């Protein structure tokens, strides 16, 4: 019973009861927003962001006609923020934002927001933060990826990088078997689950029922499992 009730409980947590709840009218429209100059994206409030690397900036909102004005897109420093302001949206036929940008340095995903890469990204250093049931799917070629996942965040990465740092907690989930990294440093705790692929070196710490599964034949610099944590090599 508790497992069946959990999704409803989580959904209630992400839907702020003090905010107005609005349902879509089923008629999907689009609106282009004039926004540029950002190198990162912050996603929240259950909005889906479809992310592409391109020569020029573009931001296009696709949503039910009565919801499109409720989806906010604004620039804060170097971040494009996507979300809503004190409104809960549900039963929408669409609530998507299509984003194109030349360079990606940072992604922050929370409160059940989703971000899906539409093409392969070429990056230098990339910071990824996912929490509160946020979801990320991304293919990339990068120098250094720094990933933090917490509170049921979910991430799937593919491509290649020189150095991959990953820190997972509170049931965070990472599938990076298809991200081939030269050097991997990964720490998992509180029932988090990580799957990584290293070629040269790997350092791993798993605790409090956290699990790490790794592929490749790297030099194992550190392998520490405690308090019910596990570390397993996969072929």
Instruction: Bin the strand percentage.
Output: over 45%
Second rung of CATH, namely the architecture of the largest domain: 3 Solenoid
Which term fits the overall shape?
globular
Radius of gyration: 19 Å
Query: What is the number of E strands?
Result: 20
For the biggest sheet, the summary is: 18 strands, mixed
- Structural class designation: mainly beta
Uncertain segments are 1-15
Order of helices and strands: HEEEEEEEEEEEEEEEEEEEE
The total domain count is 2
Features:
2 domains, 61% strand, Pectate Lyase C-like, 18-stranded mixed beta sheet, two-stranded parallel sheet, 235 residues
Structure description:
6% of the residues lie in helices and 61% in strands. By secondary structure, the protein is mainly beta. The strands form 2 sheets. The chain has an 18-stranded mixed sheet that branches. The chain folds into 2 domains: 1-119, Pectate Lyase C-like (3 Solenoid), CATH 2.160.20; 120-235, Pectate Lyase C-like (3 Solenoid), CATH 2.160.20. A hairpin with a 2-residue loop joins β6 and β7. The protein has one helix at 2-14; strands at residues 20-23, 28-33, 40-43, 48-53, 58-64, 71-76, 79-84, 87-90, 95-101, 106-109, 114-117, 121-122, 125-130, 135-149, 154-168, 173-188, 193-207, 211-215, 219-226, 230-233.
